[in-house]
Design goal:
- A hairpin with a 3-residue loop joins strand 6 and strand 7.
- The protein is globular, with a radius of gyration of 35 Å.
- The protein is built from 8 helices and 7 strands; from the N terminus they run αααααβαααββββββ.
- By secondary structure, the protein is α+β, with helices and mostly antiparallel strands.
Amino acid sequence: MNATRMRRAAIAAVAAFVLPLTVTACGSDGGDSDSGSGSGSSSSEEKQDKEQKDMEETEDATQADGPFGSACQSVPKEGAGSFDGMAQDPVATAASNNPALSTLVTAVKKAGLVDTLNTAEDITVFAPANSAFEKVPEEDLNALLNDKEALTKVLTYHVVGEKLTPADLEDGSYETLAKEKLTVSGSGEEYTVNDSANVVCGNVQTANATVYIIDSVLMPKM
């Protein structure tokens, strides 16, 4: 009987020691589970936020990378004069394939600037459309085309020695190859240069330049 009582006492003692440990362990597991659940929820929210941010950045990048403006509709849909075609050629060559820039190309050739423009790296060209040259009185335009020095200054005034994104055009002043500054302002798809020329087809990419086609010829100080 004494031995039996001793065994029962021993069993009771072990149970008294083990039971609290078991309860504690269960409570700990429950806490970890709750914590893990909270962490998973937080991780899921962070993932969703990141995906949303990436989507917004992708949309912004797409808008920034694409040409814009009403005059872009007249650009050929395919071939060397299309946006894809122009992106393969340096800027003077690309412009020669765009019918809307034929007068500008003639002027560039007369000034001997084809190689200069084609070999330059990372430039921005504010390219007057044919309609821009039509605003210049014929007598004055002919005189300009026959004065190589003056023509060179006018044309290089349309070229900035760095690539400008649409965001750069919102408000800024930039040095041109003519060593004179031009100013740009605007937002969205509405931009002006020197408060006089409107961008009618912007953010056109060529192999070495970003082109903004404008509706007026820019005139530097002569």
